[in-house]
Design a protein that fits this description.
Two copies of one chain form a homodimer. By secondary structure, chain A is α/β, with parallel strands linked by helices. Chain A contains 19 helices and 18 strands. A six-stranded parallel β-sheet of chain A has the order 6-16-15-12-11-9. In chain A, strands 2-3-1-10 form a four-stranded mixed β-sheet. In chain A, helix 11 runs parallel beside helix 12 and helix 13 crosses helix 18. At the A-B interface, helix 2, helix 10, helix 11, helix 12 and helix 13 of A face helix 2, helix 10, helix 11, helix 12 and helix 13 of B.
Chain lengths: 514, 514
Amino acid sequence: MTTTSDPVRSRRRKAREPQVQAAPSATAFTLTNPFPRMEVFSADEVASLHNASLRVLEELGIRILLQEARDRFRDAGAIVDEESLMVRIGREIIEEALSIAPPGFTFHSHTDGHDMPVGGRSLMFGAGAGCPNITDLERGRRPGSMADFCEGMKLIDSFPMIPKLTAVVEPQDIPIAIRHLHTTRAQLSLSDKMPFAYARGQGQVLDCFEMVRIGMGLSEEEFRQKPCLHTVINTNSPRQIDIPMAQGLIDFAEWGQVAVVTPFCLSGAMAPITIAGALTLSHAEALAGITLTQLVRPGTPVVYGAFSSNVDMRSGAPVFGTPEHMRTNFGAGQLARHVGLPWRSAAGTAANTADAQATYENQLALWGCLLGGANMIFHSAGWLEGGLTFSMEKFVTDHEVLQVVAAAMQPVSADLGEIAFDAIAEVEPGGHFFAAAHTMERYRTAFYETQVSDWSNFGQWTEAGGKTATERAHEIWKQALSEWQPPARDPAVLEALDAYVAKRTEEGGASPVD
Amino acid sequence: MTTTSDPVRSRRRKAREPQVQAAPSATAFTLTNPFPRMEVFSADEVASLHNASLRVLEELGIRILLQEARDRFRDAGAIVDEESLMVRIGREIIEEALSIAPPGFTFHSHTDGHDMPVGGRSLMFGAGAGCPNITDLERGRRPGSMADFCEGMKLIDSFPMIPKLTAVVEPQDIPIAIRHLHTTRAQLSLSDKMPFAYARGQGQVLDCFEMVRIGMGLSEEEFRQKPCLHTVINTNSPRQIDIPMAQGLIDFAEWGQVAVVTPFCLSGAMAPITIAGALTLSHAEALAGITLTQLVRPGTPVVYGAFSSNVDMRSGAPVFGTPEHMRTNFGAGQLARHVGLPWRSAAGTAANTADAQATYENQLALWGCLLGGANMIFHSAGWLEGGLTFSMEKFVTDHEVLQVVAAAMQPVSADLGEIAFDAIAEVEPGGHFFAAAHTMERYRTAFYETQVSDWSNFGQWTEAGGKTATERAHEIWKQALSEWQPPARDPAVLEALDAYVAKRTEEGGASPVD
């Protein structure tokens, strides 16, 4: 996010100087999570879950569909059955990989001050991602297009709590063999925030690498040394890694870019119905993927992902913000810390519209992640229908929650000026502090100023049209997009990107690999 | 709550046996909060805030409008100025009171198993209270009536997470001198849950005591020994306790009933604009009120209340679920634990309608209280407009959040059966667990079952009318009220209550005291 690309805030700043800033001492690029962590397992139980996961990999094995990945595991000492494609990975291989995987790293940005440390108590929010559909109050629910994708990039660029880009919606009007060229071009030209790439086969991945390298002005050597791009690797739970996912693990590791290894283990569907069982399976799959990255390039940055929730046993649909989802995140955090890796989780909702359910489920899920100590909380703004639709309005209302949480994470001073004995002495019993010197000195910056909430009284609110928060959110994102300005770009870089897109398009692009 | 008075759950239980229960091992009567506590102050800073509060009471004093209360403080050694009505309370008086006030106690219930411990990690939710207006989707926003008050009692009675009654709305169609008789009669006849009384002068309070004693079938001596009724004492911040509040502190203490001493210190209005300053003032006022209860009856149960938030500096309106509100609760919890008393806080929202803002602010505020370790979280379901309106639909959606939180607080087992190694072995890679023996044994009770959330897919949801959560909540409360059954009551008790109401009405009731 650049100052100029933050139209809503900059406009309001102008209109009502001096502007109160949300969380003045923190930006989304350097958030740290001070909340104590909720633990649901004893140390012995964590060890026992970890051990069960090692047994799964060692005794049962995991099916890996990519030859190169199986070869790498075999070379490291794993037992490979080429008929069943099963790979049994001894615990010494896993433990060796865990000992060399870094406990943290820093995402490189080409914008000053926007490098992002990941690990420890770092915290980064991601917008809802991967949705086939997009919706808003004006245009309704529809399959995503490239225009929608670009709006999504501008949206994220305009809102400060989301420091990274994400494929909010799938642009289905672009042929799939060249879609990655256009989505990468859009990310690199519409925002300075960190880009994202799908791992849909080596052809596409290498295209994305080259474009990001060009877009960020890095030499190939620099690109290999500086993590500045991430992908999400979803295993095909249970116990399977398919070709594009295995290839993505290898390619991202090889090039020093970041695979977020995220089994999507839904209790009762792709995973055991119990929290401990789903975590055991998810942990095993994550360890397998993480180990592969370390076999490819020892010490390459990698993120432990866990995104387990449960399914509604009546419909089979994944649900979020449930007690099971929250408690799974508490436990997943313990497992991530047990293996000493930065970890990623996600919020979300199964609601079909941006209503109270969408709002409360997303926040319940968010607190599960926050108290679980996740370093990256994806899908934290805008997801509907368990990820089938991205809502522009819900993005804005969810983002407001992220802003409040970020501000609530700031320290509280208890120095003498803050304790305000003299101010208390100054105001007579039954009086008020509105005009106290202590108040006058501080009122401009004392409180968080909301972007979405309406704090006027019922009469004023009714007179102003009685708009709901979702209706106000609609106005807010429309205004943000109308005032959005592209980030400063060297025209030569944009030309180089265009030339690359043209060349690769002429060559037929790269079809996704199944 | 009795089984028969829980129509929504019992109906669903019948329809879909076997029913999944929310938080099977906990009821709202015995909830404990396992979340780690968020601390914003060091131990030294807590001591420094506490000391500043003692200085406020000792050096500046507090204005107490009731003669009897001033006399009691003077008898204990405080310095009283009868002209200014200021009472300066030495720290030794406060410290003596804190040393004898109990760290916890148990609310007595006349329903088996519904006694409620308060203190330590106990947790109790209260519904939105004290609203002049009530609203619902059908009838709109209107001043509260006695019929609305009774609906509120039936509503609370029907929903399991709220173990106590509360004056959800002010019945303005009942003359104020006899209103307390009718609200107390309604509470005692419509629910087994713990009643509440306002402290609006001794006449009303003694009426309520007598009616509760009759309604709960207690002798006067038993009533004095068993806390079974509570009130909220709001100081008139800053540094003032008015006549009905001071009288309420004395009367509730005298009779062994529970005063929840709650300064409502809004930063920037009735309190300093800083969190530390507002807490210093709030803490001082709470300590003054608590001390009075202990002077009246050493060892009587009492609750430390803190309900500080901030005001919107543009409108002056109190706001909730803000970063300041949350952080104030983190700090208030530290102060409550410093003095070793059970403590009460509150959620809430300033939203004008049951929209996304109402939903997210209430939950943000709730997490401030939960991580602050509050034992009683009032206004946690149904409040709108900072307490000016009670929303029937918002009560239901907020209650859903309480149910999820209560279930998320339950322990997670990591025994071998839960870890499910054998189930993982049973399901082939890429397969699913729907039919696994491990799943079949557990699916009926494995997951929380929602009351409000709709987890069907977009097509099914649209076909079913595309209802929002708030629209579903409307149906849910209407059904609950239509199926509500009165609790079992000895007709003689009801007759005695009626006779008491008739007699006191004939005598003119008791006007509230200013």
